Amino acid sequence: MKILVCISHVPDTTSKINFTNGDSEFDTNGVQYVINPNDEFGLTRAIWFQEQQGANVTVVNVGGPDTEPTLRKALAIGANEAIRVNANPTDGFFVAKQLAEVIKNGGYDLVIAGKESLDYNGGMVPGMIAGILGSNFLNSCTALTIDGNNVKAVREIDGGKETVSTTLPLIIGGQKGLVEEKDLRIPNMRGIMTARTKALTILEPVDAAVNTKAVKFEKPAPKSAVKLVSADNLDELINLLHNEAKVI
Amino acid sequence: MSILIYAESAEGKFKKVAFELASYAKKVAESLGTTVTALTVNISDVSELGKYGVDKVLKVSNDKLAGFNAKAYADVIKQAAEKEGTKVVLLSSTTDSIYLSPLVAVALNAGFASNVVGLPVSTSPFQVKRNAFSNKAFNITQIDTDVKVLGLAKNSYGLFESTGAAAAEDFNPTIGDNDFGVKVESVEKVSGKVSIADADIVVSGGRGLKGPENWGLVEDLAAVLGAATACSKPVSDLGWRPHSEHVGQTGKPVATNLYIAIGISGAIQHIAGINSSKVKVVINNDPEAPFFKVADYGVVGDAFEIVPQLTEKLKAFKAQHS
Ligand SMILES: Cc1cc2nc3c(=O)[nH]c(=O)nc-3n(C[C@H](O)[C@H](O)[C@H](O)COP(=O)(O)OP(=O)(O)OC[C@H]3O[C@@H](n4cnc5c(N)ncnc54)[C@H](O)[C@@H]3O)c2cc1C
């Protein structure tokens, strides 16, 4: 089984979010980048398939040279090889087109992407890849087992979960649950050493439409300070929630 | 070229988000000088949609669509959009609609913006404001394609009634067998409880509650408010509560009218998931807990004393105001 894990390179959640150039660009100054958490669950699940079922795992990112440390980290965690499509990932459709091309040429059976990435929270890439390729697609996937070509999976739904069956080739939008958080892999010394010798292929992008663009960023208006209510005056809290906030 | 909305329903009834989407679509339609068409699947009485500004309803009745299937539903939405010659398709942000939207966008060759939080900033060029960076910022996105697909973030617009009635029309799209590559084997819903996705109020507990045996405090308060219950990540990691209740960056997002956090420190990963809730109340014994910085109302003190009192007082308040 050939698995492709799509890796988004995102600012660590604790990063300060600032903008430059007249609020038209994200300010990367001092920002620490990580593998998108949803993708990390998918990567660990893929490594599990590698170890238990002999799968071959490739990781891919659409991005500039600055994302290579993130791909190297994925290699250190255990992926067999990495691909970087050398383009600025500004629009979900453009990214999906690039990834669809990699998938077509690589003959992958299973593609694992995160249900959303934590920078633009678009939640569009996995579904768009599936739309472009016409493949089976499962979003918000929280459990996945594969036997030959047959897939059993669980998907989160509002207020519960759904068990589904499908077949490879398959694209999933994954999240926590694919593995437990305690089972997430971190690179060890041996992994880091061998990652240096693994192939990281750079591909030039194919022509694709850019349907949307981010023209400007804004920060939320500064919040007014919290109104503290004394613990022995809870009637006042109820009064505020009823008359001021109008939520009860 | 009316605007098309997908009016989501469950068990034969519209979800509240369908009315929010209709209210929003009505306003967008006014600024574009057009009307609103809603697509419904297997709903017999669609009259309620008129109240929220829908002019016309395309009613699909088909047993093959009895259960949700993203590919088939996306295909139906595409055919409805083409039939109406629509330039703007609107979907909400339920788990199902989030699943559908990118498929619809590709099928219609449309630019797609998700997490939209307000009316278009401009209609020419077409620009919308969206949540980004885990709700720590907004992003104005321009969509340059002829057809546009928007996903409206939950509780970001509200319900607005208008006068008018929706004319209903049967619609029979063609549904291909190859749409059913993913088959639902079973569905498990948490019954008898308000789910986080549907709730207007969420009461959430953190590690400050000390153990699962104390969750009665959270549940009693939630029951009085008709709220869903939730928790911080360590609480579900410790197995005190099910994972489906964990909210935050790696858990469920919560965009409710009221979020009450009890014994939760307010770590940035937790806040990332609840930030778009309108009103936040924090109960914590540590006045330095970071949650107080993002809260609207706060009580500093011991949850074990405060919460039962608050529950009793709210019971009395509800009795008076119902
Ligand atoms: C990559 C990553 C992703 C994460 N994702 C999430 C996520 O999605 N959701 C999430 O919640 N966390 C997430 N976390 C964890 C997060 O950083 C915090 O560790 C977590 O939110 C803390 O939970 P807590 O506030 O319940 O516990 P604690 O930090 O232990 O805080 C408990 C609070 O309870 C108060 N307290 C104690 N006793 C009482 C009492 N008797 N009465 C009133 N107050 C009391 C304390 O003052 C304290 O503020 C993530 C972390 C990482 C690194």
Description:
Chain A has 248 residues and is an alpha/beta fold. Helices cover 28% and strands 31% of the residues of chain A. The mean pLDDT of chain A is 96. The longest helix of chain B is centred in the last third of the chain and has 19 residues, at 303-321. The model of chain B has no long low-confidence stretch (mean pLDDT 95). The radius of gyration of chain B is 21 Å and the shape is elongated. Helix content of chain B is 28%, strand content 26%. Chain B is built from eight helices and 18 strands. Bound molecules: flavin-adenine dinucleotide. Residues 206-208, 232-235, 248-251, 263-265, 267, 269-270, 273, 283-286, 289, 302-304 of chain B line the site of flavin-adenine dinucleotide. Chain A: This is Electron transfer flavoprotein subunit beta/FixA family protein. Chain A: Belongs to the ETF beta-subunit/FixA family.
List the helices and strands and how they pair.
The complex is a heterodimer of chains A (248) and B (322).
Chain A: E1 2-6, E2 9-11, E3 19-20, E4 25-26, E5 33-35, H1 37-53, E6 56-62, H2 68-77, E7 81-85, H3 92-106, E8 110-114, H4 125-133, E9 136-147, E10 150-157, E11 160-167, E12 170-174, H5 189-195, E13 200-203, E14 212-218, E15 227-228, H6 234-244
Parallel strand pairs in A: 1-6, 1-8, 6-7, 7-13, 8-12, 9-12
Antiparallel strand pairs in A: 2-5, 3-4, 9-10, 10-11
Helix pairs in contact in A: 2-5, 3-4
Chain B: E1 3-6, E2 9-10, E3 13-14, H1 16-32, E4 36-41, E5 56-60, H2 70-84, E6 88-91, H3 95-107, E7 111-116, E8 122-123, E9 126-132, E10 137-143, E11 148-152, E12 167-170, E13 183-189, E14 201-205, H4 216-225, E15 228-231, H5 233-237, E16 258-262, H6 268-274, E17 279-284, H7 291-294, E18 297-300, H8 303-321
Parallel strand pairs in B: 1-4, 1-6, 4-5, 5-12, 6-11, 7-11, 14-15, 14-16, 16-17, 17-18
Antiparallel strand pairs in B: 2-3, 8-9, 9-10
Helix pairs in contact in B: 2-3, 4-8
The site of flavin-adenine dinucleotide has 26 residues of chain B, from helix 5, helix 6, strand 17 and helix 8.
Family (chain A): Belongs to the ETF beta-subunit/FixA family.
Protein name (chain A): Electron transfer flavoprotein subunit beta/FixA family protein
InterPro entries (chain A): ETF_a/b_N, ETF_b, Rossmann-like_a/b/a_fold
